[in-house]
User: What shape does this take?
Amino acid sequence: MSPGSQLLNTLEHGGIAQAMRDSMWLYPAVETVHIVGFIILVGSVIMFDLRVLGLSRRVPVSMLARHLLPWGASALILIVPAGLLMFSSDAGNLVGNRAFVLKMLLLMLAGTNAAAFHMGVFRTVSKWDQGMVAPLAARLHAGVSLLLWLGIVTCGRMIAYA
Amino acid sequence: MRKLSVISLLVTSLVALPVAAHHGWSSYDNDKPLTLTGNVVEASYTYPHGTIKLDTGGKTWLAVLAPPSRMSARGLSSEDLKAGVQATVEGYPNRDDPSEMRAERITIGGKTTELR
Assistant: This one.
């Protein structure tokens, strides 16, 4: 057994994973927490991306960022532990699930895209904060982000059917 | 407005792509309905879905059932689903694993429970 599959095996046979499988209400409850969390995160991301793409130009981008981004980041406190709990309950199968693997890949791309946006073109936001078209680089980041997050949600839903 | 239509086109195509690629339950072959009867040698009433190992005389199948909450709501309790009982499952074989099937319904002790 490789170290990787040994780790998955240990995770899957742990007490918490066992409880996730055996309890009548735990799995659906954790699933609901995961969903509530990503509604907040993905909702914030999509609203921000639409603004950068050119909708509601009267709203300053910097102000919207200050409002939405902390909500998105805080939602990770719900999303990540709930996701890890669900993962632990079926770890061995999930690593071979194409929708799950694609979702993880898209998540990494979305994170990289967001980091590149914030370290790059967002530094000049004061020049395009309100009432004007954002630079092409910003709009590209926003468009890519929108597509990636819709893909992530779709893949998440498809895990059950893949 | 033109921008909005470009966005919605991109969004639609992105959502449609993975759906087309997976086509719901693609790992099971809907063209080959299967009915198996045998002895339950192992049963798990667990999330994300219950399973049984069914000895059909010569071959042991793994039948994937439904989440425990759904089975319980439809009257199939963990007491009904246990090793030693005789069961009939109707469903579809896995395309990649010749000993696995997804059950649409299960009959135990004359009682049929829909699983989808």
